[in-house]
Amino acid sequence: MKRFSVVLVVLGLSITSFAFQSQTYLDYIAQWRDVAIRHQQMYGIPASITMAQGLLESGAGTSELAKNANNHFGIKCTSEWMGDVYRYDDDRKDECFRVYLNAEESYKDHALFLQRSRYARLFTIPVADYGAWARGLKECGYATDPAYAQKLIRVIEDYNLASLTSDTSRVVGGATPQYGGQGGANTPVNTQVAANGVVMVTEGATIASFAKEQTEEYIVPRTAKEEKSLFYSKHAVLRNNGVKYVKANEGDTYATIAYSLNVKERSLREQNDAVGRTLKPGERVYLGKKKSQAPKEKAYVWVRPGETVWSICQREGITEKSFRDMNGLRDDVRVFETRQQVLLRKEKKQ
User: Are strands 238-240 and 284-286 parallel, antiparallel or unpaired?
Assistant: First the structure.
């Protein structure tokens, strides 16, 4: 009898765990379904595949990468990645993963990532054929897990994610299936998970109310000149060490500033020694190349413990390379740990 009770307890825990996971997955689907559908329309990636990858790679938003790096698709750093990075043990120890400002950025980068040439053949597959897409992703090298395709297919079928794909291709007004089962356009979609793990449908909003086709109003884009004028209306141009700069506002990134000024983001980052850095409000963004040394009247400066090499170079308007060369600093020295005097100009040879 005692052993039977133990079995019941273990079974109960398993059911509760399954119920929790099901609700977590359903909540995640509800949150990101519209983005997945929109990306199918914009980029040709099946909404079912986007949704399944997001669920699988991020554990429905609960994984370490999702919580600490807003990375919902397990996308690693590549040679062209210039944003922040997060180190995480995956196939190998301490691997480099991309960091995003928010989860929606991760979804957009996923769509752009799949536009790479290595995935080109996927776009010859019909969006409704999620099985072929899942197998194609594995064959193209998206993941190293041998069972990756099967796992994607299982998630799609368990949560009926193929309905997302049909939402964008069906005739408006036709029947729309619901997640987790088949239903008509007036099927309610508010769900709860019972103790036995069964998904229960309750009264509430109907699927038809969620399946209305989204139409975005077309906005005439600003010209490059207008973008630049708008930028300067919000950013005062200052000067330091003979170089013009602006201070970043809330919401500014190196990408948005580069776009507004019609320059390459890589060039803007390089002239600010900012490849791999995230721009923060109040930081200086130089609009031209920094100098190799400070003015004659400022040959050195005292730094405080905790100050970084980058912050000193930005404050003084000199390049990080020349600053390191002048002071004999290795590339791995990032922060000063003691109060000390550092050179801002080359010492004259006696």
Answer: unpaired
- 73 near 106, Cβ under 8 Å? yes
Backbone angles phi, psi at 200, to 5 degrees: -100, 135
Instruction: Measure the CA–CA gap between 27 and 260, rounded to whole angstroms.
Output: 37
Supply the pLDDT for residue 217.
Answer: 56
CB–CB of 156/52 below 8 Å?
A: yes
Separation CA 69–CA 174 (nearest Å): 40
Largest CA distance in the chain: 94
Cα–Cα distance for residue pair 71/52, rounded to 1 Å? 15
Residue 40 falls in which region: left (phi positive, over 0), alpha (psi -120 to 50) or beta: alpha
**Residue range 30-59: mean pLDDT, rounded:** 93
Tally of helices (H runs) and strands (E runs) in the chain: 13, 9
Cβ atoms of residues 243 and 289 within 8 Å: yes
Give 55-107 as a DSSP string: HHHHTTTTSHHHHHH--SS-PBP-TT--S-EEEE-SSSTTEEEE--SSHHHHH
In this structure, what token pair is assigned to residue 92? 């190998």
The DSSP code for 181 is: B
Angle, in degrees to the nearest 10, between helices 309-316 and 320-327: 110
Contacts with 28 (C-beta within 8 Å, 6 or more apart), sequence order: 54, 55, 58, 60, 61
Could you give the count of Cα atoms lying within 13 Å of 123 in the half-sphere of its Cβ?
14
Residue 282 to residue 265: CA distance in whole angstroms: 19
CA angle 76, 77, 78 (to 5 degrees): 115
d(CA 241, CA 295): 7
Alpha carbon distance 318, 345 (integer Å): 10
Tell me what the pLDDT averaged over the chain comes to: 80
pTM attached to this predicted model = 0.48
pLDDT digits (tens, 9 = 90+) for 223-281: 888 888 899 999 999 999 999 999 999 989 998 999 899 988 999 999 999 988 889 99
Distance, in Å, from the CA atom of 172 to the CA atom of 215, rounded to the nearest integer, reads: 13
Q: In the prediction, which pLDDT does 211 show?
A: 40
